[in-house]
Amino acid sequence: MEFSVAKQKYKPNLEKLEKIQKALEEAKESLEEKKHALDAKELKIAKGEPLDKEKPKEEKEKPGEKSFFKKAISKISKIKITEKEFEIYEEELQMLLLENNVALEVAEKIIRRLKEEMIGKELLKKEIETEIQDFFKKIIREILIDPFDIVKAVKEKKDKPYVILFCGINGTGKTTTIAKIANSLKKQGLSCVLAAADTFRAASIEQIQKHGDKLGFKVISHEYGSDPAAVGFDAIKYAKKNNIDCVLIDTAGRMHTEKNLLKEIEKISKVNNPDIKIFVGEAITGNDSIEQIKSFDWAIGISGIILTKADTDEKGGTALSVGYVTKKPILYLGIGQEYDNIIPFNKEKFIEELGL
Predict the structure, then answer these.
(1) What SS3 class is residue 75?
(2) From start to end of the chain, where are the E strands?
(3) How far apart are CA 199 and CA 266, in angstroms?
(4) Between helices 104-118 and 125-143, what is the axis angle to 10°?
(5) For 68, 157, 310, 322, which has the most beta carbons within 10 A of its beta carbon?
């Protein structure tokens, strides 16, 4: 028996199952012996030979009860999943989740859910694999919230502009992601202004200015060290005056442990009141992503997630982890450095690529 989780073959330890199989085979042999005894009895009747003294007949089967034969067949063909039986799978399943970048806390909760679902069930042995696969599909569908359509939201907002605030830690590709989203909006005939509210990192303003020049979008910026909330405010003011559809606010990358910088992003959010707040993180961070996203969600209440470097991660565990912890949708996956290297997150395709 084997099945794939995240493109890996799962081969459980079958030692305990082999013991069960042996017991089932012994039960089957017992049935065969009884069948032979019955055949011998019928042969004596046919020859007119006296029968051995019969035991009193058993009481008639009550309605709803299984006959002896049905019970025997059930024991041969089915296994009731017990705590002990589940242990065969539990440790290896948890290891597979961890190896595929699922955070420990999330892996434990998924296994706990699986245990609750499986314990006490009577299944054909051949059904166990399918049952586990179906459960994983079910829980992944529950964890991963369906994404909303940013382009549609921008088009439908009557009181322009639609304001998007981007946040995340250093080095995740946040500014490039902003340019990708701006490019996607441009392709749909929507106008944008970019707010260079990262006034802390060296060359950050020049970086977003280059993206703005390539895309043909205005970039609003102040001097380094100035108030980032004011940059966003001026960008929104410019957009209103010039009937711009969308404002995309870049912010300085900050570690989730930097309390003062988290207060700063909170201020930026309060001053500019964005329609949505997007956390940009890497698809390869695993356990680290949990603490990062918890801090940002606590500070400003994120609306959705974009995971970069998804082209370098075939495991997919980070998506499960952040989806489980935040209960917020994954909107896009970054799959390269070009403007077109961003794709909407597709839950069913994600499940398929996990090998389920």
Answers:
(1) helix
(2) 3-5, 8-10, 78-80, 122-124, 162-167, 192-197, 218-220, 246-251, 276-282, 304-308, 330-334, 342-344
(3) 16
(4) 130
(5) 322
> Cβ contacts of residue 192 below 8 Å, gap of 6+?
182, 185, 186, 215, 217, 244, 245, 246, 247, 248
Nearest to 24 by CA among 73, 82, 83, 86: 73
Query: Which helix H or strand E contains 129, and what residues bound it?
Result: helix 125-143
For the chain, what is the largest distance between any 2 Cα atoms, rounded to a whole number of angstroms?
113
* pTM of the shown model: 0.74
**SS3 label, residue 305:** strand
In the numeric block, the tokens 């959705």 are attached to 304
Block residue for tokens 């007949």 = 57
319, 332 Cβ separation under 8 angstroms = no
Residues of the chain with CATH 3.40.50.300: 150-353
At 292-317, the pLDDT tens digits run 888 889 889 999 999 998 887 666 77
CATH architecture of 150-353: 3-Layer(aba) Sandwich (3.40)
Taking the C-alpha atoms of residue 5 and residue 352, their distance in angstroms, rounded to an integer, is 10
* 188-192, 216-220, 250-254, 325-329: range with lowest mean pLDDT: 250-254
